[in-house]
């Protein structure tokens, strides 16, 4: 008996599952009574049903940061990424592009690539040896005599991809938000001079924070807590987020240094033709973002105890070490620091409603030599310490959000970017439910 195995092409779209009606009703009510200027109610951080809705409505529909091309420099190089119910392969192609594929074998759902990173030719599932090309096409599957298989119907499912100045973003939706393509030309001129294509990974750190992904992002979006970051405060002005009229007395001297350093940085940027104006559209568009070039304290060069450079090699086409940091925030899961001597990328990767993987990657010039041009411990010290401190802050908040005594608290003026993130999230989830 001969037969052909086929599937309708309409079934090739990834399915994130079903959020129960009672969860949607609860979420709708919580969103409708969202209190502007206050933190969100406890279930947003603790409820597994709302987490599942987040995975569908945010991470299943919007552009998310997955990796940089420095992590996959050669054809066949890949990283795998798991978040919520999703599993992805981010693969460098022979022509220098990037494919993002669902890491789900089309036979019986096994993981095709089981390592977190590596290099591969054709991708072979370890279960029954179904074999896929770099674009996900099924090129081999063992069949019995007389058994036919329509290989075109069983390619790995693909996701949308955009490469922005060497940063790889993906969207799982069939029709991704179009305004991300409007954002790309706004941010690329800021990042391009640092040239990620000419960098390499010096170090990558993975920390699991016992906190909801939204708490991780809220913590990142303010410096009201920066007194808790003594190592970072040596170079990052702790007045970040403040403005004239909001400076507490104990930070007035720091604010004065910040103002002078900002003037000097802008003069230097103008001299070199570097963009430095603040563009802030965190909750006024679907692809919310903020980008700027900001001064650093001390020598103004890098994240060190003195503000001096941490690598002897300048990046890309830059001609000066004293260029502060180019700071980029993107909703919903990433932030970046582009300096003259290195780059730091951050991704918040949800695991479940109370755990988030925070991945930090340090990039240096590809010809920089460890031990000669940079010391790895010095390069990573400030953000390793800061990440551990932020982990503790997030975990304190997660414990509080789970308590029956938890009530919403007001955001301070310096926490306006937290309010913008929550407002962005609220808008997107209302649209998702609708």
UniProtKB/TrEMBL annotation:
Q: Which cofactor does it need?
A: Fe cation
Q: Name one GO molecular function term.
A: oxidoreductase activity, acting on paired donors, with incorporation or reduction of molecular oxygen
Q: Which Gene3D superfamilies match?
A: Naphthalene 1,2-dioxygenase Alpha Subunit, Chain A, domain 1 (3.90.380.10), Rieske [2Fe-2S] iron-sulphur domain (2.102.10.10)
Rieske domain residues: 63-170
Q: Which UniProt keywords apply?
A: 2Fe-2S, Iron, Iron-sulfur, Metal-binding, Oxidoreductase
**Pfam families membership:** Rieske, Ring_hydroxyl_A
* Protein known as: (Fe-S)-binding protein
